[in-house]
Write a structure and sequence with these properties.
By secondary structure, the chain is of the alpha/beta class. The protein is 33% helix and 14% strand. The chain contains six helices and six strands; from the N terminus they run βαβαβαβαβαβα. A six-stranded parallel beta sheet has the order 3-2-1-4-5-6, sandwiched between helices. Bound molecules: magnesium ion and zinc ion. Magnesium ion (MG) binds at residues 12, 14-16, 136-138, 158. Zinc ion is lined by residues 93, 95, 108, 110-111.
Length: 195
């Protein structure tokens, strides 16, 4: 633990920040949960960095381009900012080993539960992952928390309710909550407080 480095909340995108709708290939299909902006704003006010970390294998599968991913992220950011909230940085993995777009069809170090996206954020934003939190709707998000030494919160939105019923033997979340609002409350209760 390094007191000069920031604590962050790494938030999954689909099924956590916004509704899970299969591969999100058009910005028009983007749907926020009613609590999303309030939850992010509460975390902003607590002085935590908010970093989106998302697997977007649809790029490797040829379903949509990185430009569409970027467009979705800028739409997310403008909706948040209209409500006085913001995400500090957006990171995603466009790869998948079974993809059909050659430049993305690869094993990489950034597809969750691997830690590449968090490592990059830690380097670029001065974040200490061991003081940080991961919020997501899949066991791979909890696996990411384990990989980087953060605390992992599983939400029941998206695939979360299904995931909760089939827990992996070797992976336990630090908390299971109904949604991002519940996760934000849990983080606020468990973050380091300055003395
Ligand atoms: Mg998800
Ligand atoms: Zn990757």
């Amino acid at each position: 633990m390094n007191a000069t480095m920031a604590a962050a909340v790494f938030v999954d995108r689909d099924g956590t920040l916004i509704e899970e709708g299969g591969f999100l290939d058009r910005v028009e299909r983007l749907a926020f949960y009613p609590w999303t902006t309030d939850a992010i704003r509460a975390l902003n006010h607590a002085g935590l960095r908010i970093v989106l970390v998302s697997n977007q294998s649809g790029v490797a599968r040829g379903l949509f381009t990185e430009a569409v991913v970027e467009e979705v992220h800028s739409r997310i950011e403008s909706v948040l900012q209209a409500g006085g909230a913001h995400i500090d940085a957006y990171y995603y993995c466009p790869h998948h080993p079974d993809g059909n777009v050659p430049r993305y069809a690869q094993h990489c170090d950034c597809r969750k539960p691997k830690g590449g996206l968090v490592d990059r954020a830690a380097r670029e934003l001065g974040i200490d992952p061991t003081r940080s939190f991961i919020i997501g709707d899949r066991w791979l998000d909890i696996g990411l928390a384990r990989t980087v030494g953060a605390r992992g919160v599983l939400v029941r939105t998206g695939y979360g309710a299904i995931e909760e019923r089939r827990p992996p033997r070797d992976l336990a979340p630090d908390a299971v909550v109904d949604n991002l609002a519940g996760a934000a409350s849990w983080v606020l209760m468990h973050m380091d407080r300055p003395c």
